[in-house]
Amino acid sequence: MIIPLHDTTADRIADRLVSIRREGGVVALSRVLTLLVPVGAAGAEEAIAAANRASMEHPCRVIVLVEEDPDAAAVLDAEIRVGGDAGASEVVVLHLPGALPDQADGLVMPLLLPDVPVVTWWPDRLPEHPAGTPLGALAVHRVTDSAHAAGALDDRLARLRGGYSPGDTDLAWTRLTWWRAHLAAILDEPPDEAVRGVLVDGCAEDPSVRLLAAWLGWKLRCPVEVVTRCGAGDLRRVELARAGGVTAIDRPEGSEEATLRLPGAAHRRVHLARRPLADCLAEELRRLDEDVVYGAVIGAGLDWLARGDHLTLTDGTGR
Questions:
Q1: Helix, strand, coil shares, percent, the chain, to 5
Q2: CA atoms of 190 and 276, how far apart (whole Å)
Q3: For residue 65, which of 38, 82, 268, 293 is within the disulfide window of CB 3.0 to 4.6 Å?
């Protein structure tokens, strides 16, 4: 059910939410957090759909702040979505024309659930300092997505690093969870040989490729070669060179499975599907503590790549 509210206020929206509960005979709701979603008009519905699916695991109140025509009159229009249009959550959509985005924190304050944490997720932008923004300052956990932000890759990574505060994370890092798990499992198995070099092969503008290279190079203290491809999807292959040979995980473009190649052993198939946006968001809502490893990677890890000959960038066209 979608309930439109024209030329309204945050207090009226809050009152309407209470009346909807009473009309439905609901006395208490088990909401575990409030999710704030500032987003442009073009990406609003995709973000709402992802938040609805993630709410099946984490029931919450979702407040979507849609930035629209900056020249329009500063009139607040809103929607309340419940039931089948809201997953396991309540969705409040605030349409913010004119100067209203500058007042976003004041607008959402009456709508925050009491005694539960706040998470802010920017689906399509990368603030210079997430924790320093009005909506970021309300949150214990702040989620960006540098893969969908504007700007060159090096600029986006520099913004992740320069604006980092404990509690920040980025979905470009979250998308690496299964890759990291497979690689850590490989390195935990014999033979106990030092890694002499790493190769990471993937899309030239995908920040996940560079973040994985930073993590591996920094943790293994070895040179890294990044093979970049234009328009070839995301992460495709990782190779670990050791004295006994090269270990590789190779995922063809468009495939949901990868091939694990170990020296002197038969090739194995491993499941390595590309993760939907809702799955990545649900993972970040699952853990609201500081991601210490992510903080180290965008700091010390990117530093490691930038020093000396630790990083080699190769154009993979035609490979």
A1: 35, 25, 35
A2: 33
A3: 38
CA–CA distance, 120 with 229 (Å, rounded to integer): 32
Element (H, E) at 33: strand 33-40
In the chain the domains, ranked by start, together with CATH numbers, are 2-171 (no CATH), 177-315 (3.30.360)
Q: Give the DSSP letter of residue 221.
A: T
Find the farthest-apart pair of alpha carbons in the chain and give their distance in angstroms, rounded.
Answer: 69
Burial (CB count <10 Å: 0-12, 13-18, 19+), residue 8: middle
123 prior amide bond cis, ω within 30: no
Question: Which of 122, 116, 119 has the alpha carbon at shortest distance from 139?
Answer: 119
Q: Which backbone phi and psi does 234 adopt, to 5 degrees?
A: -110, -135
Pairing, β 118-121 against β 60-67: unpaired
Backbone phi and psi for residue 297, each to the nearest 5 degrees, phi listed first: -65, -45
Q: How far is CA 42 from CA 123, 172, 180, 219, in A?
A: 11, 21, 32, 39
Nearest partner of 141 among 291, 300, 278, judged by Cα: 291
pLDDT band of residue 291 (cuts 50, 70, 90) is very high
Please state the rounded mean pLDDT for residues 123-145. Answer: 96
Q: For residue 77, with 0-12 CB atoms within 10 Å meaning exposed, 13-18 middle and 19 or more buried, which class applies?
A: middle
Q: Indicate the residue type of 158.
A: A
Q: Please list, residue by residue across 99-118, b when 16 or more beta carbons sit within 10 angstroms of its beta carbon and e when fewer do.
A: ebbeebeebbeebbbeeebb
Residue type, 75: V
Helices (H), the chain: 10-23, 44-55, 104-108, 134-137, 153-162, 171-174, 177-188, 207-220, 277-286, 292-296, 302-306
Helix 177-188, helix 207-220: angle, nearest 10: 20
Higher pLDDT, 131 or 74: 131
Taking residues 43-68, report their average pLDDT.
93
Residue in the structure block whose two tokens are 């020093």: 307
C-alpha–C-alpha distance, residues 180 and 245, integer Å: 20
